[in-house]
Design goal:
alpha/beta; about 25% strand
Length: about 150
Amino acid sequence: MTKTTMLLACPECGAESPYDVWQSINTAEDPQAREEVLQGKINLFECPKCGTRSMIPSSLLYHDPDRRIIAQYYPAESMKESNFFDQFDPEGRITLPIPEKQRENMPEYLNNIHVTFTMQELILYIRFREELFIKQRQKRVKESER
């Protein structure tokens, strides 16, 4: 998990206040962070002076190793950056800067990072994958009872 405390200025009134800006979340290390993501509270700026709320435009890697979910959120404006597309292969998969030798021992799902461009899309993807995980586990239990 990676977060940085930054002094942010309100886009409405200009008041400055410190905020934790998350770059990555691992739910095995911080289960509460999962709840904050699903509630839309991660990287959400709320001005203590005027109450204005806005998303902090910071990319976020979400990793739930127990459910084998990995997703990368990028603010849509990231696509305007000159080197943004350099991190993807021709099929749109993120190319991880991990030596081939280490990749051989990684779980397969880590090679298929799902990319989203809105926090709502990230939340929906996590909910979809969690429900899929539950359904598949129930199916395996039923099959083993036969």
